[in-house]
Design a protein that fits this description.
Membrane topology: Single-pass membrane protein
Order of helices and strands: HEEHEEEEEEHH
Strand content: 15-25%
Pfam families: WSC (PF01822)
Protein name: WSC domain-containing protein
Largest sheet: 6 strands, antiparallel
Number of helices: 4
Organism: Emericellopsis atlantica
Distance between the termini: 74 Å
Helix content: 25-40%
GO cellular component, one term: plasma membrane
Number of strands: 8
Shape: globular
Length: about 160
């Protein structure tokens, strides 16, 4: 093979390795539990530009971001944030709440590998890999959704 062809073939093989089906979900934290892939809300017309994880802190670590590092950033400091989210392979977002208009999407939409550890998913294009503190995650978002459905059913019966 010629050098140019070899380079193109190598780039194509590397590019195919970063698809979500080849990425793992980080699950080695004693503090946070993975909740899923969520859409970013800034482009939704009913969001007023508010982010899915708003009101906290953000940290961008180009070439260095890992899920473990983001969870440390969100859980280690003056404020322990309930939610940690990774986006664009290098951004870490920490907040006490997840916007109600943020919707859970298929995990495959969080298709960017962390720049600091290519094994794990670190969000995607306007998608966040969201983690919640374990004490809240046991019921967490799933409980809120379940209570919402139960309330609707109860109201319907009454």
């Amino acid at each position: 093979m010629r050098p140019f062809t070899t380079t193109i073939a190598t780039l194509l093989s590397v590019a195919t390795c970063v698809h979500a089906k080849d990425l793992s979900i980080y699950d080695d934290s004693k503090t946070y539990a993975y909740q899923g892939c969520y859409n970013e809300t800034t482009n939704q017309e009913d969001s007023s530009g508010v982010r899915a994880l708003d009101g906290g802190i953000t940290d961008v670590r180009e070439g260095e971001m890992t899920v473990e590092l983001c969870l440390e950033i969100c859980g280690d400091g003056d404020t322990e944030y309930r939610f940690a989210g990774l986006q664009w392979a290098r951004e870490c977002w920490c907040a006490s709440t997840l916007a109600g208009i943020a919707k859970k999407v298929d995990d495959e939409e969080c298709d960017m590998a962390c720049e600091g550890d290519g094994e794990f998913a670190c969000g995607g294009n306007l998608k966040l890999s969201v983690y919640e503190t374990s004490e809240n995650a046991a019921g967490g978002l799933r409980t809120v959704a379940s209570l919402g459905l139960a309330s609707v059913l109860l109201l319907h019966i009454i």
